[in-house]
């Protein structure tokens, strides 16, 4: 099964460098344009299913990419819930021990207060993938989020949760395209963060 993945497009909280989990902020003008560019790039690609996180920024990104297609929302594709830290400025959070642990010392049972654990996020996203594989989907598209993408990247590299910090140095760009594959037993990464169809950008996105 081929899994095409994009992260939601640029939002106001992304620009303001705030932590964004289950809480939401609007897509920016650049975000709207990027989603349309990805849609144009994919206009001749067919999918057995198009799925999105139900969070507004992801759902709107998917609708802009596929304006005439059916998009199925799935709670298992939501971003990690960052609890009490949601909406706070990244620079301020970097002073907090729990925030450091979140990114640099990930553990299955760790969560920000009132948020989700890594294991809870892993369980729900793997459940989604297994379900779609068992439904005999050959090629799907999902619109998700930055930390969820990091989790998927770690899983597809067969990393234990404790090593997810190896793949979270930079967060994948919004509306870039990645392609993973799953055969029911093994994972394969074809490419990550393809963005030559978007306007060029030199800066990397980091929350660490």
What this model shows, in words?
With 208 residues, this protein is an alpha/beta fold. It has a single domain, classed as Phosphoglycerate mutase-like (Rossmann fold, 3-Layer(aba) Sandwich). Helix content is 32%, strand content 15%. It is built from seven helices and six strands, in the order E-H-H-E-H-E-H-H-H-E-H-E-E. It has helices at 12-15, 29-41, 56-65, 90-93, 97-104, 118-134, 146-156, and strands at residues 2-7, 49-52, 72-73, 139-144, 177-182, 187-194. Strands 3-2-4-1-5-6 form a six-stranded mixed beta sheet. Strand 2, helix 3 (56-65) and strand 3 form a beta-alpha-beta unit. Helix 2 (29-41) packs across helix 3 (56-65) and helix 6 packs across helix 7.
Could you provide a short overview of the structure?
The chain has about 210 residues and is α/β, with parallel strands linked by helices. It has helices at about 10-15, 30-40, 55-65, 90-95, 95-105, 120-135, 145-155, and strands at about 1-5, 50, 70-75, 140-145, 175-180, 185-195.
